[in-house]
Request: fold
Amino acid sequence: MPTTLTAFADVTTSDSALRRFLHGLPGVDTVGLEARAASLGTRSIKTTAKAYAIDLAISMIDLTTLEGADTPGKVRALSAKAVNPDPTDRTTPMTAAVCVYPDMVATAKAALNGADVKVASVATAFPAGRAALPVKLADTRDAVAAGADEIDMVIDRGAFLAGRYLETYELIKAIKEACVRPDATAARLKVIFETGELSTYDNIRRASWIGMLAGADFIKTSTGKVGVNATPANTLLMLEAVRDFREQTGIQIGVKPAGGIRTTKDAIKFLVLVNETVGEDWLSNHWFRFGASSLLNDLLMQRQKLSTGRYSGPDYVTVD
Reply:
């Protein structure tokens, strides 16, 4: 199938056209969505499959520190852990990325020293997104200029919830353009919806389509800074959206649940969702990520248990 958005060219010509399209999307069956997510979460996997799933999950983590107290030392330590998560077992996969604030991008890039781990940076006045467009563009350009491979932007939830859909679309388009470097290479763009603030599943579906139409490389659930972050149900809904989008355009979009995913059991539930909803094409860190800070430690402990038959406990992994 050719990769094209031609069929949707008229959708984004005006706010009214985009509103008609978004409100014409099928309504979400809340009961059905949550029941399917819960059902898939009960799937059990055998030991060999569990070992594969743990390694896959480790390789999909955006190892994250987004605190006001972040220091260069903490970012360097996190980068070292991303490259070598378990110093006692060099077969442990690297994580997909290290995710930091824009002012820490250069520090992370230097610490990774060419390792096959991306540097992701939040931008656009993360986490609230309450800033003027020039500020958001400058935030993005600074991170890209410092070496960010990926940008995790936040939408203006106030604009979206007020029904200013074209404004939301145009913001994503503008940030996408700001991700392009002078040499024409570009940082990949992850668009964060903050699903916990969107109130309804219908809004999550609409936000997903706005992000995909605007050129997002990933759609992402949350910042991890609100009460409700990634859930199996909202992630399932977004997976269905990227599946439908590829069927209609030929363009594949990644998905990143973030916030609240802390255990190996949680991670495996999400991998089952991916496998059963969109299939193997998304089962790589190029198309699926976990935004997490504490998940890696539990994955490492479970990996050690499978390898040694003993549960090592938290003292056997580094504290982030």
Q: What stands out?
A: Strands lie at 61-64, 97-100, 118-123, 150-154, 188-192, 218-220, 254-256, 290-292. The CA atoms of residues 302 and 308 lie 10 Å apart. The chain has a mean pLDDT of 94.
